[in-house]
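A reminder from the course coordinator: this example appears on the midterm review sheet, so study it carefully.

Given structure:
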């Protein structure tokens, strides 16, 4: 039994040795040379098949899409400027309002009475002023007559002194009557203003966005009545990064689309740019102004904005598939006359329609690898398959 086990073990050992020898023979054995440093990652260390393209000149346009929110050109609240009961309000949500249009009325009974009273006081003051003017003129005439009599020795000096004192008194009364009229004119203006405020008016044209009260409400000063928005022109507010901010300027054209109005585009311009960046997001707010004649764009809508940041008529460009990006830097593989690939760092500008602008190096020339570069190292041998 023991001898049988020894025979079986010997057979297994010989089988293992034979299999290992066959494997070594198939793989080339230990004497096979390692792949050269200049070979690619392709099998057996041979040249790597790649596709290439030449650096060419083409028109390049850099268009960036942003997202933003539509905002009204202005929003204001019509509020009560005087206390009183709101008698009526003739506007509802969505109604248009014109500049200086009357949109409601506050009970004017009290303010009409105050206005009438002040007007009556002014009439009394004007009568007092006329009386003071007449007395002053009479006293001046008497003083002149008495002065002539004193000069002739007919009248006493004491009589003349009395008239002079009376004249100064009449002048003071006249000035007091004038001051009273000026004071009551101010009261009249205030009463007239309060009376005018009983008619609630819209200062600017727009659309009613919110109605805060109804007729019959007892109003206090500053209590809101209507909120009005201006939609003839709207603004789209968007946040841009530091890099894009440098390429924008007021007057640059923008094309705006919204999900709410599919198939419709709106043309606008960069209107204003914030002079600072938000610390949390590192972005700055930019406003796009758009004419909104049909009032289709509403405040709060989500919008997409396409802005042409830069444009080149004859840019040096390569297919974007040739770019290799590592750690935020770009490079390409250039095939030399000796069919080896050299890795060249490049600075990329505009990307447009599958192509990338090469800003530097200025002397970049030769076939650029566009397919297969992920198998290459600097100095790898390549082969360019013939095109049928």
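Designed residues:
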């Amino acid at each position: 039994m023991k001898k049988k086990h020894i025979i079986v073990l010997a057979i297994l050992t010989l089988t293992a040795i034979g299999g290992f020898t066959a494997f070594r023979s198939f793989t080339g054995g230990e004497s096979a040379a390692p792949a050269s440093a200049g070979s690619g990652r392709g099998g057996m260390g041979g040249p790597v098949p790649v596709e290439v393209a030449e650096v060419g000149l083409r028109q390049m346009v850099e268009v960036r899409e942003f997202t933003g929110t539509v905002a009204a050109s202005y929003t204001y609240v019509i509020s009560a400027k005087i206390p009183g009961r709101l008698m009526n309000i003739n506007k509802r949500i969505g109604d248009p309002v014109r500049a200086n249009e009357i949109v409601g009325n506050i009970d004017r009974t009290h303010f009409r009475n105050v206005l009438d009273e002040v007007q009556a006081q002014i009439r009394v003051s004007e009568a007092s002023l006329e009386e003071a003017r007449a007395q002053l003129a009479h006293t001046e005439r008497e003083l002149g007559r008495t002065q002539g009599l004193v000069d002739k020795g007919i009248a006493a000096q004491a009589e003349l002194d009395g008239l002079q004192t009376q004249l100064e008194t009449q002048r003071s009364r006249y000035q007091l009557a004038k001051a009273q009229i000026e004071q009551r004119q101010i009261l009249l203006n205030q009463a007239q203003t309060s009376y005018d405020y009983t008619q609630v008016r819209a200062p600017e044209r727009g659309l009613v966005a919110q109605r805060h009260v109804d007729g019959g409400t007892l109003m206090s000063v500053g209590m809101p009545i209507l909120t009005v928005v201006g939609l003839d022109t709207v603004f789209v507010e968007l946040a841009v990064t530091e890099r894009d901010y440098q390429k924008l300027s007021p007057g640059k054209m923008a094309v705006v689309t919204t999900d709410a109005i599919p198939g419709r585009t709106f043309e606008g311009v960069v209107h204003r740019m914030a002079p600072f960046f938000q610390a949390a997001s590192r972005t700055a707010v930019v406003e796009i102004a758009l004419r909104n004649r049909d009032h289709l764009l509403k405040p709060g809508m989500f919008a997409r904005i396409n802005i042409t940041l830069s444009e080149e008529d004859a840019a040096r460009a390569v297919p974007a598939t040739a770019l290799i990006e590592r750690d935020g830097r770009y490079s390409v593989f250039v095939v030399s006359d000796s069919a080896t690939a050299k890795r060249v760092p490049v600075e990329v500008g505009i990307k447009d329609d599958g192509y990338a602008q090469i800003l530097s190096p200025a002397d970049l020339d030769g076939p650029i690898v566009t397919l297969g570069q992920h198998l290459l190292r600097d100095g790898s041998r390549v082969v360019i398959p013939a095109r049928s």
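The chain is about 30% helix and 40% strand. The domain at 230-312 is CATH 2.40.30.170 (Elongation Factor Tu (Ef-tu); domain 3).
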